[in-house]
Amino acid sequence: MTRIPFPHRLRAASLLAGLLCLAGCGEEPAAALGTLEYDRIALPAPAAERIVDIAVREGERVEAGARILTLERTRGDAQQAAAEADVARQREALAELRNGARTEVVDQARANLAATQAQARDARAYYARLRPLGTRQLVAAAEVDRARAAAGNADAQVAAARAALAELDNGVRPEQVAQAEAALAAAEAQLRAQSATTGRLDVVAPRAGRIDSLPYRLGDEAPVGAPLAVMLVGEAPYARVYVPEPLRAGIDVGDAATVLVGAEGERRYDGRVRMIRSEPTFTPYYALTGKDAARLSYLAEVELADAADLPAGLPLRVEFGP
């Protein structure tokens, strides 16, 4: 066997050590850990009504406008009918004011004025006949006083009847019409609000997506505003990662990244940073100083290319830089 001279062996060992050193000193790409996510939207309960039908299952994909579940409509339909009746009442009240008094009502007011005028003439005539007798003390003074009061009362009734007839002839005041118009507008607004609430008793998907969860079951009665369904929407998922403080200064929106999906990074996708928070997560920045500041994390989102088939929740690692 040929023996290699010692100087050559020394040079070869030195070269191999240098290569190993270079390989060991190679910098690892900056990376952050996280999960695969979709945008989530919640569909709140428009009213505290019992769930009478559920048309989808969790995990099912639906199109925009597809019915998800239905709430009981008995109370909503009754409130809708009451709102419609109130609008009809206010509309007719406004029409009555605009049309003014009927001819029969005006004729009745004229007849009432004529009757009070006749009564007033009779009362005045009676007082005129009784007054001389009272002067001569042929009748009691109290009787004369009653006749004078009756004549004055009759004249007042004539004035009231004449004013009532004038009110009918002049019609309603513009302010009354304006108040009736405002009342009608308020009733119509209430009807629109009730119609919107009643129409939402059929809960439909506002966008195409996948049903992530249905917190309530058939027969449950969720409180107003509680999420009846949670949907995952969007054309593609994105990576939600927590960037360590030492990497934060070198990452900005629009930077390229590589997303390794799976516990072992089985799938590789090209990505781009679409959002990164300026405030740290978990720990307030003012509570950490010195070396402790390296414990800060910043929430970031990285959009993936051609990853529409991946489910949400998968673990991943994002490597930043070229």
Give an overview of the whole structure:
It is a single chain. The chain has 322 residues and is an alpha+beta fold. The chain folds into two domains: 31-70 and 210-320, Beta Barrel (Elongation Factor Tu (Ef-tu), domain 3), CATH 2.40.30; 83-193. Helices cover 43% and strands 25% of the residues. It has helices spanning 6-25, 74-99, 103-135, 141-170, 174-199, 245-248; strands at residues 31-44, 51-54, 61-62, 67-71, 202-204, 209-213, 227-244, 256-261, 267-276, 297-304, 315-320. The strands form two sheets. It has a six-stranded antiparallel barrel. Residues 1-26 have low confidence and may be disordered.
Short description:
The protein is α+β, with helices and mostly antiparallel strands.
Write the layout of secondary structure elements.
Elements: H1 6-25, E1 31-44, E2 51-54, E3 61-62, E4 67-71, H2 74-99, H3 103-135, H4 141-170, H5 174-199, E5 202-204, E6 209-213, E7 227-244, H6 245-248, E8 256-261, E9 267-276, E10 297-304, E11 315-320
Antiparallel strand pairs: 1-7, 1-11, 2-4, 3-6, 4-5, 6-7, 7-10, 8-9, 8-11, 9-10
Helix pairs in contact: 2-5, 3-4
Features:
HlyD family efflux transporter periplasmic adaptor subunit; alpha+beta; Elongation Factor Tu (Ef-tu), domain 3; three-stranded antiparallel beta sheet; signal; 322 residues; coiled coil; UPF0194_transport; 2 domains; rod-shaped; 6 helices; single chain
Content of β-strand: 25-35%
Strand order of the largest sheet: 1-7-10-9-8-11
Q: What percent of residues adopt helix (DSSP H or I)?
A: 40-55%
Main sheet properties? 6 strands, antiparallel, barrel
The figure for the number of domains is: 2
What's the total number of strands? 11
Mean pLDDT: 83
Q: What is the CATH superfamily label of the largest domain? A: Efflux pump adaptor protein, beta barrel domain
Overall geometry comes to rod-shaped
Radius of gyration: 45 Å
Q: What would CATH call the architecture of the largest domain? A: Beta Barrel
